[in-house]
Design a protein that fits this description.
single chain; alpha/beta; 7 helices; globular
């Protein structure tokens, strides 16, 4: 057996930092508002109208079980905090027990178990989270937060579950950005009744790897 030198072990440990992973349900026209039906959106619950099948369910469960923490905007956090504590099962148990970070300037005392409010500079807070965790820090919903993360180049992976429906109105996932942001498709598959799972990573990763 080849021994691992101390400096090699240190380098390996330093490389094991968490990734910011954004995962979203979106329509063909980019709407991500209220797929679960918890709000007042006129198309509330639209994701339930299309069957994503067992493979789609497994994708979401595996994603959750492999997550280290949740990073959420205030509105999504409050919706989750209202819904998940009363549920049980593998998915709910993981959500309820793992660390949760909510980006908010107004939320004072989060009541959901293992929750922390982040108020500082977003890039600085994300850097701290990456150092604190060595697996995926997953962002669900949270349109405004996601747009800020994308704007600052802080998203390591983008997972879209695209439903075959055009909603015509509603909050869209992608807002204006200051510049173009090339992505590369690293995986794709179709599940259930035509739901496409598309996984992207920033093109900058390849550029940085070659320098």
């Amino acid at each position: 057996m080849v021994p691992v030198l101390a400096d090699e072990a240190t380098d390996e440990k330093e490389e094991q930092v968490g990734r910011i992973v954004v995962t979203e349900f979106v329509s063909l026209d980019g709407v991500m508002e209220d797929p679960g039906g918890a709000g007042n959106f006129k198309h509330a619950g639209w994701s339930f109208e299309v069957n994503r099948g067992d493979e789609g369910d497994k994708f979401k469960l595996d994603e959750t079980l492999s997550s280290d923490a949740l990073l959420l905007g205030r509105v999504t956090y409050e919706g989750f905090a209202d819904a998940w504590p009363s549920r049980d099962g593998e998915f709910a148990d993981k959500f309820n027990t793992m660390p949760k970070y909510v980006v908010s300037s107004t939320l004072e005392e989060p009541e959901w178990n293992n929750s922390t409010v982040l108020r500082g500079d977003l890039p600085e807070e994300v850097a701290k989270l990456r150092d604190r965790h060595d697996r995926d820090i997953v962002v669900h919903g949270s349109a405004q937060l996601v747009q800020s993360l994308l704007e600052h180049g802080l998203v390591d992976e983008l997972r879209l579950m695209v439903y075959p429906v055009v909603l015509g109105s509603g909050k869209r996932l992608f807002g204006g950005t200051s510049d173009k942001q090339p992505l590369r498709l690293v995986d794709s598959k179709t599940v259930g009744d035509g739901v496409a799972i598309l996984i992207y990573q920033p093109q900058r990763d390849e550029a940085q790897a070659s320098t």
